[in-house]
Amino acid sequence: MDTNVQKPATNRWLVIFGTVLIQLAAGSFYAWSIFNNGFMLKTGGVPTVVNGVKKIVGGLPAGSVSFTFTLGMLALSLATLAGIPLAKKYGIKIIAIIASIVYGLSILGLTVIGKDSSIWTLWLLGGVILGAMNGVLYLTTLTNAIKWFPERKGLISGISVAAYGLGSFIFKFIDQAVAGGAGAVTGANIDHVLTWWGILALILAVVGSFFLKDAPDDPKLASASVVSSSDNDFTTAEMLHTSQAYLLFVCLVTAVMFMGLLGAAVTNMASLGTHSPADVATWGGTTAAATFVAIVALLNTIGRFVMGWLSDVIGRKNVFFITYILQLVSLVVLVMTKPGSMSMGMMYTVVIVLAFCFGGNITVFPAYVADFFGLKNSARNYSMIYQGFGIGAILVGFLMASGNPLMPAPVTYSNGAVLTQNFTLVYWTLIVLVIISLIIFATIKKPVKKA
């Protein structure tokens, strides 16, 4: 044993504590769907019953308001390309503090949305700025945390990404509690809810930022239990000259597309599979649907922690084989079952499996990229491959809307139900992509850096 190797001077777990606080704040963005109706009502929408179904007529269009989140996902991934180099140049703490303040202020800025507001104002504040700051906070702190624990990359990724998922789960209940009554965000209370969200997220993120410290590039300076891996450290340019980078990009796009099913679309997906056409459009507003969404979000979070830890034990590739095969089986069940004929128990099983596996996949990817291309440049390298996140989010958004997110075409299913979400197209596209991803994982080999 080398007695000259000293333990790191920094308490690494304090860095993880700060990271968790920031991830909780950043993850709150994923509770966006509960604000859609509120923005429509505040901008002039009026609740109306059409053919026995409650709808909001007027105000900003529903498709345009919900597209704000999709736009945010694209801004999130693109912003990581700038956030990682800035954190490298100025330090993780400074960048995190600035991003935290802008993130909180952009939420507070959403209170200016009113009857005369353009959709472009909502897209700028709630999509571009909020999404971009979310991406900077998420990926810079995640990759920094992993570098502090080179011997436990999967576990630390699991803790960090689980906190990100937990942020949505916790803030959804906080937002509903602040809204009062039945927990619905309306035109009358949306500003109050946004103010609380903005202040709490800002405080959490700023406080967490003060616990951050830049991880050393050399793994042995972070942990005495590992040796330096400089021989396997690819620069971003070197990584982009390997086929593995593009193959992993395809696999990440596939993994992220499941977010489209598990986000705002999950209640309609469950309703379509288990209810008659007359009840499909109304089940999403019931208490049972809210419980369903909460359980899905919880299993998503649990999957992030469990599969991150398991990837350190059985290997990242084995975890991907487990998750992608389970997702493939779940998709086959969905396409083979006639709409309206699935039991709620089976629907719970299918969606819980999809949520658990999605959480695990999105957690293991940064550690897998670090395994392939080294830790030294892992933040910049993963920020490039992470662009698959934005591509996957946009792709599933267009597929779900049959090619037009702003004016989705109605889709008539075999049981007569009519929705503007094309689940069949998404299911079959994902089946093809999951099979391709499994072939990639079966054949891909760790790249060898040229001397």
UniProtKB/TrEMBL annotation:
Residues 1-449 form the Major facilitator superfamily (MFS) profile domain. It is a multi-pass membrane protein. Keywords: Membrane, Transmembrane, Transmembrane helix, Transport. Pfam families: MFS_1. The keyword Transmembrane helix applies. The chain crosses the membrane at residues 12-32, 67-87, 94-114, 120-142, 154-174, 194-212, 245-266, 286-307, 319-336, 348-373, 385-405, 425-444. The keyword Membrane applies. Gene3D superfamilies: MFS general substrate transporter like domains. GO terms for molecular function: transmembrane transporter activity. It is found in: Cell membrane. GO terms for cellular component: plasma membrane. PANTHER family: MAJOR FACILITATOR SUPERFAMILY (MFS) PROFILE DOMAIN-CONTAINING PROTEIN-RELATED, MONOCARBOXYLATE TRANSPORTER. This is Possible oxalate/formate antiporter.
